[in-house]
Each structure stands twice: as C-alpha cells, then as structure tokens.
Amino acid sequence: MPVPEPEPVPEPEPGSDAGRPEPGEDRILTVANGVTALRLAGVGVFCWVLFGLGRQSAAAVLLAVLGATDWVDGQLARRLHQVSTLGKVLDPAVDRVLVGTAVIAVIAHGAVPVWFGVLTLVREALVSATVLVLAALGARRVDVLWLGKAGTFGLMVAYPAFLISHGSAGWQAPLHVAAWVAGAAGLAAAWGAAVLYLVPARRALDEGRRGRRAGRGGGGPPPVRGSLQTQGEASA
C-alpha cells in the first residue's frame, strides 16, 4: 500500500495572529503536565523495580503501562484546552527518556540482544536530532506516517514482552516468540518510516523557508518557527 503524501499546511498570513501562542500556554500546573510528570517519575520506578527489587515481571508490566499511556497527556491537553509551552517540550522529551531508559535497562538485564537494542537507540537518536534541526530551521509540521506509528507500537509491545519472557519457564517461551515477531516487525517499520520521512521533511523545510521570506517581504512578522511538539509528532 503506498504511503499517503502529507497535505501541505497553509502558512499564516503576514501580520496575522495565526501561529502565535494561545492565551494560557505559559501555564505549568495543568492536568496534562501532571500526567507527563507522573510518566517521567514512572521511569525511575521502573528501574528501581527491575534492578533494586529484582521483580522482572512487575517491571515489565510497568513498562507496558508507561508505553501504552504515551497518548494520554497529549489527549488531555487538547480535550481540556490545556496545551502549554512546557507540555510541548516536556511530552516528547519524556517519551525519549522512556524509550532510551527502557532499551538500555532491558539490554543490561540481558533480555534482548545488544545489536537489537543498539538499532533501536540509533533510530531514536537520529529521529530526535532531525526533529531538533527541523524545528531550529523553521520547517513546517511533518505529518505522521502510519508506518512510523506501526513501528512504535511494535517496539512498545516487544520490549515489555522481551523482559517478561526472559527466563526458562515453559509459559515464557510463547511470549518470547511473540516478542521477536513484534520486535522485528516494529524495528523494520520504524527504520522504514525514518527513511520515508526524508522527502516530506525536505519539503516541509522548503515551505517553512518560503513562508518566512514571504512574511518578511510583506512587512509583517515572520511565521513562528515549528515547535518541538509539532515536529515531535512526526517522530512516532
């Protein structure tokens, strides 16, 4: 199935209020930011349960919960009209901390081969670096590809499954097979999406630059540069 091309996002008119921060975006104490903070705290709890208490299964369940609630804080921010500047930065940052910590912890526990974990980490590092560069250069939003979402979901299933199936018990064998199926498919999809993002990312950068030039030429303020949140949405 061909990957749908992202639809162009119209640039704000020179001198208009489009793209400017909404009132209240400087808020810090919001329900959405509270959920994000809890997820960040959960990363530390996960490491303590796995290495401090030695509770492998409990740590795997907690990791699965943290991964499955990735969408909760963003949905709350939009539904409760609590989108904030802090949340735009904190949400994707916590996601990266969770992924990096989880992968390193599962490697250190011996539940996943080093090469598999390294491929996951390298992909995440490349995506994060690209997000920062595009945001700094003023690229417009890059739409999420379904392949990237599928890859993220596969890896979110695979790592807790690798952890909980690490052992010699009979019930762990089927889970280990399922972990490899989800992990292999997720990693392949994640890398495939990273390659496919190159074309829309270049287009987004060109359109962002043209918009800024048009804004300056029209006498109004240049369009606001792409935020970490809008760019971060493309890193799934």
Structure description:
The protein is mainly α and 236 residues long. It is 68% helix and 0% strand. Helix 6 runs antiparallel to helix 7 (172-196). The longest helix has 25 residues, at 85-109. Residues 1-11, 14-19 and 223-236 have low confidence and may be disordered.
Major β-sheet profile: none
Cα Rg: 20 Å
Number of domains: 1
Count of extended strands:
0
User: Which runs of at least 5 residues are low in confidence (pLDDT < 50)?
Assistant: 1-11, 14-19, 223-236
Strand content: under 5%
User: How many DSSP H or I helices?
Assistant: 9
- Helicity, as a percent range: 55-70%
**Shape descriptor:** globular
Short description:
The protein has helices spanning 31-52, 56-68, 72-79, 85-109, 114-137, 146-164, 172-196, 198-217, 228-232. The chain has 236 residues and is mainly alpha-helical.
List keywords for this structure.
mainly alpha, globular, 0% strand, 68% helix, single chain, disordered N terminus, 236 residues, 9 helices
List the helices and strands and how they pair.
Elements: H1 31-52, H2 56-68, H3 72-79, H4 85-109, H5 114-137, H6 146-164, H7 172-196, H8 198-217, H9 228-232
Helix pairs in contact: 1-2, 1-3, 1-4, 2-6, 4-5, 5-7, 6-7
